[in-house]
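Follow-up to my earlier ticket, as requested here are the two runs.
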Amino acid sequence: MERAARSPRKARPRSLKRRPKTSRSKPVASTPWPQIEAFLDAEQGNISLGSINHSSLAYTAVANDEHNMLVALVRRPRESLHQLLDRLEQALGPAVDDQIFVDEINGP
């Protein structure tokens, strides 16, 4: 009695584990500045860091959309870049959501 030859078994693809759905509506920010990241991801405008051709404005952070300057900050004495970005983060949310603008460059 002859045995029937078995055909080699085909490898079955491993089923991927499904991740449970989360109730998060926003992706998790990859930086400590989620407002800034969301603003840039949404392509709502620009953020510029640098100097303005004026001796007292050696280091500034400016966020603007196509119509308005939303936030304009001047770096304070002994303020680190991280601290300046923290202040930009705090000011950007109200500027975008509630049109509460901050302008430290042009004065009152």
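Run two:
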Amino acid sequence: MIIYEKVNFLSGQNMIPENASMEKDLVQLKERVEEMSLDLRNIVTLLQSPQRSISRRGVLFDLLRDEAREKALMRLDAGMAKRCDMRKDCRQRFVGLLDDNLNLLERPRITEEDIRSRLDNLQSLRTEAVPGRCDGCFDEMGSLFQQQLELMRSLKLYKGREDVLNGIEGLPENEVVRDLLEPLSNVQRMVILKALSKIPRSFSELSSITNLRGGNLLFHLQRLTASEMISQRSGRGEYALSERGMRALEMVSDMYQRTSRFEKTRSFEENL
């Protein structure tokens, strides 16, 4: 919610075209954007397809970034003040901020901290602006920032505060506890998952790592197998971490680091 309030502040709806020439530019821009929209939707669909190879996805991300950049530059050029001796310098700095946002598309996940830091950069730039004179340009920049957030959402790379809260509301409690929390709520099972995070391991190797023998180890392996966190290769072969198990570990790691940072920050603030 905080990020949305900042974006709304930076993208107010008070921009008024300076003259008829700007109105003509906006009409032409709208026509061009409509032409590009279908291409963007097709690229997004391809990126979300699980059948695409990693190399193919890399090419598609490059296409998407280039297309989104072209679209943003067209809007920026049409929306910025035409008669201003600061236009060239401001445009260069705006483009740098927009490119920095688009570089986030290469990441597997975009966090609140990523977005917040870029909003802070935009807000810092706005503190140097001349009140009244620069409002229109910053309104347009804020609007472009909002569009980039929506692109990140459509690619499922970023979830804002509101998205997270909506997701929490829809959680199926029984399934979450049974299939996710309960399998992870045991020290020995966490040891097993961590041991399998890099390479598959045999029963004897896991026995040595966990100090569990026979039926005790088998119980935990069966529990993790039933929840699809791990799988066993060829009957009595090695145990390997599944994609589901890797995502669960990544989630736990991220949650632990985020909550640890929060506790450290709060402790530091309390001691000031």
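The only thing I checked on run two: Residues 2-165 form one domain. Let me know what else you need.
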